[in-house]
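REQUEST
  id: r-88c1
  op: predict_structure
  target: Peptidase M43 pregnancy-associated plasma-A domain-containing protein
  payload:
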Amino acid sequence: GATGSLSDSCVQSGITWLNNDFRAVSGTKGGNGVDTRIQFVLATTDANGASTTGIVRHDNEAWFNQESGYSTLWDQAWDNTKYLNVFTKNTGTSLGWATLAANAGANTDGVTVSYRAYGNCATNTQYNQGATLTHEVGHYFG
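RESPONSE
  id: r-88c1
  status: 200
  body:
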């Protein structure tokens, strides 16, 4: 279904905010931070070696609305030694969550963000400046 489907430009806005924060870009909300020298990009090659936009959409209402187990989510993940898997979905009252650094390497490595709080296109105007993804990726790195 269309609920929760983010446009390509919305997905890219999340990556832009993430880079602004992690690279401490002057004039942005992350400008007062420390440049981590980590640069995020959407994948250009998928897990099978084919060209990709780095954006994969899955139409699974039960998973999207948290009515099915997380194995459905992780079945869709790409090799977490090569990719940082970021999922957007209905997260209920939470803005998101991430695998903690202590669990690095687990087949459940990744970040989940509410589709309502992702990028500058978030429908929740309190959380429409990309900080949720930055926050969760911060947990991911520990």
